[in-house]
Specification:
About 5% of the residues lie in helices and about 30% in strands. It has a domain at about 30-60 and about 390-450 and about 455-470 and about 510-633. The radius of gyration is 24 Å and the shape is globular. It is built from 4 helices and 41 strands. With about 625 residues, it is mainly beta. The strands form 12 sheets. A 5-stranded mixed β-sheet has the order 1-35-36-37-38, with no helix packed on it. A 4-stranded antiparallel β-sheet has the order 2-41-40-39, with no helix packed on it. The longest helix is centred in the first third of the chain and has 20 residues, at about 5-20.
Length: about 625
C-alpha cells in the first residue's frame, strides 16, 4: 500500500476518537457518566478571563415554559438541545444559529401534564446514535407522554423505519398493569448501545401503590421493536420475588429508572439505578425489603439478564430513590487497576463496587436504624452503610445542640419552631415518617440528586455537590376537609379508583426560618472523594445564603440539583447553587477561582464543554429559559 494511502487510513480511523474528545456525545460525556472532558484550553491560569459567547432563548413568545433541566449534546460539529415542552433544536455550536427545530406531540396544557410534569417536562437529555448502513445518525429521546422518538440528526425529521413513522408508543398493556389512564412517561434521557436504546420511566408518585410498572426495556433502533424487558418488581420464579410476601408484588408501581442509566460499553453491561416502590412514604401493603426497589442492578446489555445487584435502601418509606447516575472509573489497589462503579441513593452515602462482580471495594455494614410507630408498617431493622467514605452531608439532628447560630434572632426563631415540634423528633439516619410527625434528614429532595457527580481520572477524585435538606413529615389519614391542616401538612394527590391511599403525605416543610435552615451550616457542600483510598480529599461549602453576616460562608440551601463537570484544565464547572452563581473551582484543592451571576437559576442542568470549529473551547449550561455559553476572549 502506498505510504500516503496508509497515512490517510490511519487518520480516518483516528477521526471519530478525536471528534469524541472535542465533542460532548452523551449526557455524561461518556456513557460511563464521568462528565470529564480532556479539553484544557481553559485552565486554572486563565479561567478568570471567561466572557459570554452566545445565548439561545428556549422560551418562545406565547408558549408555556418550565425551567430547563437540559444537558445538550455536541456531536459532529452540531449542538443538540432539548427543552420544554418536547422541543429539540440543532444549533451551530460556535454561534447558536438554528439549523433545525422539532416539536414532539404532547398535551402540554392537559390536567395530567400540569399535575405530573412540573420541571420533568423540561426534556432533561438526548441520546445520539451513529446509525448503520440502513439508517443515518439519529437523535433519540422520550417524552412525558410515553413516546420514544428517533429523528434524523441532520434534518430533524422522524425516522420512518422506527416504530410508527419515527415514534414508539411505550404505554403498552404489559407495563400499564391495567391502569391505562395513569401517568407513564420518560423524564430523563435514554441510553444507546450498538443498535439498542434503553428506556426507564417516570410513573407518578403517591397515586397509590398500584399502577404502571417501572420495568426497564430495550428497543431496536432500526425498527422500534421490543428486544427485552427486565421486571424491576420480580415475578414468581425470578430472583428477588421472595422479598414480596404473598401477592404483594402484583401491579406495584415505582421501582423505576427515572434518571439516567450508566453503561460499560467495553463489557456490554448496563447499570440501572432504580427508584422507590410506591407509596413513597409508607409500605403497609408491601412488607419486606422490596427488591429491586432502591437498587443498583447490573444486566447484560444485549439480553437484559441480571449479573448482580445491590439494594441501597431496604423497604423505602422516605422516597430516597437511586436517581444519582452511577459513575464508572478505575480504582488502583496494590498497583493494580480494578474496574469500579460509584453508586449513591438520595441518602448521601457513596458505595464503591467492582463493576464486573459487584463485590464492594470498601466494606459495607448493616447498621441498626430507628423503628417507626405506624400501625401495620414493616420496618427494616438495619440499613447498609459504607465504612468508607464517610457520609457526604448531615444525616441527623440533635436538639438543641445542632441549632444554627447565624444570628441571635434566627437562633431564637429556630428554638421556638423546634420547640413546638418537640425538638424535631429526629432519631438519626432513617428516622421514619409517622402520624405524629418527624424531622427527616435528608428530606425527599435528598442529599444528592439526579444531576449526579463527576470523576477526574487524573486525580482519582469522585466529585459531587450535596445539601442538608431536613423536612418535617407527617402522615395524615384521609379526612373530609384537608384545608383545615397547616399548609405544610396538606395532602398532595389522591389515589385513583382501585388504588386507594391509606395515608396522604404532605408536601413537607423545610426546617427553616425565613429561608435559613435551623441546623448548623454548611447547608450545602462540594466534596471530592479519593476513590483509591476512600477518604475525603477536600470538602468546601458550596455557594452562600443571602443575607448572612459578612464573612460567613454557609453554603447555599438546597443546592444539590445541578451537577459538576471536570476538565483536563484542572477545573470543575458547576451551577446549581441557589445564590444564582455559575462557578469554576480548582479540581485539586476545591478553591473557587471564578464565578458569574446568572439572571435565572441553574437548576437541574449540568454544564458541558466542547471545542468549536473556530478552535475555541466553549462552556455551555442551561440557566432557566436561556442556554448560556462562555469562552476565552
Amino acid at each position: 500500500m502506498p505510504r500516503i494511502s496508509w497515512l490517510l487510513m490511519i487518520a480516518g480511523l483516528a477521526l471519530p476518537a478525536l471528534q469524541a474528545q472535542n465533542d460532548w456525545p452523551a449526557w455524561g460525556h461518556d456513557v460511563g457518566n464521568q462528565r470529564f472532558s480532556p479539553l484544557k484550553q481553559i485552565n486554572t491560569t486563565n479561567v478568570t478571563k471567561l466572557v459570554p459567547a452566545w445565548q439561545y432563548q428556549m422560551k418562545k413568545e406565547g408558549q408555556p415554559f418550565r425551567m430547563s433541566q437540559s444537558t445538550p449534546l455536541v456531536m459532529g460539529g452540531v449542538m443538540y438541545l432539548s427543552y420544554p415542552f418536547y422541543r429539540v433544536a440543532a444549533l451551530e455550536p460556535e454561534t447558536g444559529k438554528v439549523l433545525w427545530e422539532y416539536t414532539a406531540r404532547g398535551e402540554s396544557d392537559s390536567p395530567e401534564h400540569r399535575l405530573h410534569s412540573g420541571p420533568l417536562g423540561s426534556m432533561r437529555g438526548l441520546a445520539y446514535w451513529s446509525g448503520d448502513k440502513q439508517t443515518p445518525p439519529q437523535i433519540v429521546f422520550g417524552t412525558e407522554e410515553g413516546e420514544l422518538y428517533s429523528l434524523n440528526a441532520k434534518t430533524g425529521k422522524p425516522n420512518p423505519g422506527f416504530g410508527n413513522e419515527g415514534v414508539v408508543n411505550l404505554k403498552t398493556p404489559e407495563v400499564m398493569n391495567g391502569f391505562p389512564n395513569l401517568h407513564y412517561g420518560i423524564s430523563s434521557g435514554v441510553t444507546v448501545y450498538k443498535h439498542l436504546v434503553f428506556t426507564g420511566t417516570h410513573n407518578a408518585d403517591e397515586t397509590g401503590s398500584k399502577g404502571p410498572a417501572g420495568d426497564v426495556r430495550a428497543w431496536d433502533l432500526r425498527t422500534g421493536k421490543l428486544v427485552w424487558t427486565f421486571h424491576t418488581i420480580p415475578r414468581p420464579g425470578e430472583v428477588g420475588n421472595d422479598s414480596w410476601p404473598g401477592d404483594s408484588w402484583k401491579n406495584v408501581s415505582g421501582a423505576n429508572v427515572w434518571s439516567f442509566f450508566t453503561l460499560d460499553a467495553q463489557r456490554g453491561i448496563l447499570y440501572m439505578p432504580l427508584g422507590s416502590a410506591q407509596n413513597d412514604y409508607y409500605g403497609t401493603d408491601r412488607p419486606g425489603p422490596n427488591l429491586f426497589a432502591n437498587s443498583m442492578v447490573a444486566v447484560d446489555a444485549e439480553t437484559g439478564k441480571m449479573k448482580w445487584y445491590f439494594q441501597a435502601v431496604h423497604h423505602d418509606i422516605w422516597d430516597y430513590d437511586m436517581p444519582i447516575p452511577p459513575i464508572l472509573f478505575d480504582v488502583t489497589r496494590d498497583g493494580k487497576k480494578i474496574p469500579a462503579i460509584g453508586v449513591m441513593s438520595k441518602m448521601p452515602l457513596l458505595f464503591i463496587f467492582d463493576r464486573v462482580t459487584g463485590k464492594p471495594l470498601y466494606d459495607i455494614e448493616e447498621r441498626p436504624v430507628p423503628k417507626g410507630e405506624l400501625p401495620g408498617e414493616w420496618y427494616s431493622p438495619t440499613q447498609p452503610f459504607p465504612v468508607k467514605p464517610p457520609p457526604l452531608s448531615r444525616l441527623s439532628f440533635k436538639f438543641p445542640d445542632d441549632i444554627a447560630k447565624i444570628t441571635p434572632e434566627h437562633e431564637a426563631a429556630c428554638r421556638e419552631l423546634l420547640g413546638k415540634e418537640e425538638g424535631g423528633r429526629n432519631m438519626g439516619p432513617y428516622t421514619a415518617p409517622s402520624e405524629k410527625g418527624a424531622m427527616v434528614l435528608p428530606g425527599p429532595g435528598g442529599g444528592a440528586e439526579f444531576t449526579g457527580g463527576t470523576f477526574d481520572p487524573t486525580l482519582g477524585y469522585y466529585i459531587i455537590n450535596t445539601a442538608d435538606t431536613a423536612h418535617f413529615f407527617t402522615l395524615q389519614r384521609p379526612i373530609e376537609d384537608p384545608s383545615t391542616l397547616p399548609s405544610y401538612r396538606q395532602p398532595r394527590w389522591k389515589g385513583p379508583p382501585g388504588s386507594p391511599l391509606l395515608y396522604w403525605h404532605p408536601a413537607g416543610a423545610p426546617v427553616a426560618v425565613n429561608g435559613w435552615p435551623c441546623y448548623q451550616p454548611p447547608w450545602s457542600r462540594l466534596t471530592a472523594v479519593n476513590v483509591n483510598t476512600g477518604d475525603i480529599a477536600w470538602q468546601v461549602p458550596f455557594g452562600n445564603a443571602e443575607g448572612v453576616p459578612a464573612g460567613m460562608t454557609t453554603g447555599a440551601p438546597t443546592s444539590q440539583v445541578g451537577g459538576p463537570t471536570t476538565t483536563a484544565g484542572g477545573l470543575i464547572f458547576i451551577g446549581a447553587a441557589t445564590d444564582r452563581y455559575f462557578r469554576a473551582y480548582e479540581t485539586k484543592t476545591g478553591k473557587e477561582l471564578w464565578k458569574v451571576r446568572t439572571d435565572e437559576l441553574i437548576r437541574g442542568a449540568n454544564p458541558i464543554t466542547y471545542l468549536g470549529k473556530d478552535g475555541k473551547q466553549y462552556i455551555a449550561v442551561a440557566a432557566g429559559s436561556t442556554l448560556l455559553t462562555f469562552k476565552l476572549p
